[in-house]
Design brief:
Radius of gyration: 15 Å
Shape: globular
Strand content: 15-25%
Number of strands: 6
Distance between the termini: 22 Å
Structural class: alpha+beta
Strand order of the largest sheet: 4-3-2-1-5-6
Number of domains: 1
Helix content: 25-40%
Number of helices: 4
Length: about 160
């Protein structure tokens, strides 16, 4: 439910860029949410929102919603590379073509959800959940998305909370 709320908020705030341009600075390009094992010791699941200008916001997902934990900036070219991949990808077609995922959170692992709202509006944004489909780096969109996500993780500081 919280993940749907965060996604809805980001979609409302997201800007749309034409497919032949670089992403608009304030357009939300990528949202990555973690769930599952990250909540075992405390509220350590995080939602990361990446904008077209490389701005990153990390939110801790809590029982009462989400709270901003940190912000950073990553290399805009990484974000632009993802936006270029997304501009030429039919997200619904990609979603339908992916092999099944697995529930890592069912075994103390972390599940990942990725959404790419930048080119999906005004239609519903497909949600790519590792529980449902494999977020495989062999797909160019996911190779670019993982590169952006890893850069964002390296740039932010989200201290672990123990209960």
């Amino acid at each position: 439910m919280r993940s749907i709320l965060l996604t809805a908020i980001a979609l409302i705030l997201a800007g749309c860029a034409p497919a032949d341009s670089e992403p608009v600075a304030d357009a939300t390009v990528l949202i990555v949410e973690s769930s599952g094992g990250c909540a075992q010791l405390g509220p350590n699941c995080v939602s990361i929102v990446v904008k077209g200008d490389g701005a990153v916001a990390a939110f801790r997902i809590t029982a009462s919603g989400s709270e901003l934990v940190d912000t950073a900036v990553i290399d805009r070219e990484l974000v632009a590379a993802l936006a270029r991949e997304l501009a030429t990808t039919d997200q619904n077609e990609l979603l339908a073509s992916l092999p099944p995922g697995e529930c890592r959170g069912c075994f103390d692992g972390i599940d990942t959800t990725m959404t790419f709202p930048i080119y999906a509006l005004p239609v519903e944004t497909p949600i790519f959940s590792s529980v449902d489909v494999r977020l495989d780096r062999s797909e160019p969109v996911f190779a670019a998305a993982w590169a952006v996500y890893e850069a964002a993780q390296a740039a932010i500081d989200v201290p672990v909370i123990a209960r």
